[in-house]
């Protein structure tokens, strides 16, 4: 039997932590190894336990979820921790800042129990948890224009094919969906995504989505791979 997916819960609402813990601990392949009520305690717990997944509330006392995420993502010893931001609202400005800081995705707190379990397992595999509809609205609201020098320079590093792939990732498509749309194999799609991530020095697919919006490859109204 494989090792369970270890989880740390960081939220200042005891009812949220208790409800999530009861649900997660009932599963044979998931284990909650710690709880914290603010970001500072959360980062300390995560450094101690090094969980596979950290569910982190975006707004908390002492240290908020954005700063907690930044500290986790910048720690080389925590590179394997997948941070998922929890929010009451799908269009919270702080969520986008958390994605910029290194979060793997976000979930709304009223998520269905089955969807939460699926999300934790998916995050453990390194997948980005980004609802395409909510992400378009969220990033469309909070990405500033024009593109920054960093994103503009990064865009120049990509081939036209890689730009197209990044735009599709920004729309929330999986490698299989990208392959179908571009009429290529899933392995080729995965290779294009990996090369783009390497060139842009981003740590995961969520960061690739942020880049796609920041540089204008995708806008709130749809993709624009011609830029």
TrEMBL record:
CDD domains attached to this UniProt entry: LuxR_C_like, REC_NarL-like
PROSITE patterns in alphabetical order: HTH_LUXR_2 (PS50043), RESPONSE_REGULATORY (PS50110)
4-aspartylphosphate carried by residues: 57
Key words, A-Z: DNA-binding, Phosphoprotein, Transcription, Transcription regulation
GO MF terms held by the record: DNA binding
Response regulatory domain: residues covered: 6-124
InterPro entries (alphabetical): CheY-like_superfamily, NreC/VraR/RcsB-like_REC, Sig_transdc_resp-reg_C-effctor, Sig_transdc_resp-reg_receiver, Tscrpt_reg_LuxR_C, WalR-like
BP term (GO), one: phosphorelay signal transduction system
Occurrences of domain HTH luxR-type (ranges): 151-216
PANTHER family, sorted: TRANSCRIPTIONAL REGULATORY PROTEIN NARL-RELATED (PTHR43214:SF24), TWO-COMPONENT RESPONSE REGULATOR (PTHR43214)
Designated name of the protein: DNA-binding response regulator
Organism: Phytoactinopolyspora halophila
């Amino acid at each position: 039997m494989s090792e369970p997916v270890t989880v740390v819960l960081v939220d200042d609402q005891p009812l949220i932590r208790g409800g999530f813990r009861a649900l997660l601990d009932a599963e044979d392949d998931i284990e909650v190894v710690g709880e914290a009520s603010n970001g500072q305690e959360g980062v300390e717990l995560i450094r101690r336990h090094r969980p596979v997944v950290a569910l982190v509330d975006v707004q908390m006392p002492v240290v908020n979820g954005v700063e907690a995420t930044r500290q986790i993502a910048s720690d080389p010893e925590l590179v394997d921790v997948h941070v998922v931001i929890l929010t009451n609202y799908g269009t919270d400005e702080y969520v986008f800042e958390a994605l910029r800081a290194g979060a793997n995705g976000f979930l709304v707190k009223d998520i269905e129990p089955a969807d939460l379990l699926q999300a934790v397992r998916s995050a453990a595999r390194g997948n980005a948890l980004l609802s395409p509809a909510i992400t378009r609205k969220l990033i469309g609201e909070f990405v500033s224009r024009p593109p920054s020098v960093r994103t503009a320079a990064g865009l120049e590093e990509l081939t036209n094919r890689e730009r197209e792939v990044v735009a599709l990732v920004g729309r929330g498509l999986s490698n299989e969906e990208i392959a179908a749309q571009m009429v290529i194999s899933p392995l080729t799609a995965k290779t294009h995504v990996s090369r783009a991530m390497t060139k842009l020095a981003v740590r995961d697919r969520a960061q690739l989505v942020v880049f796609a919006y920041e540089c204008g490859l995708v806008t709130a109204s749809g993709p624009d791979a011609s830029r």
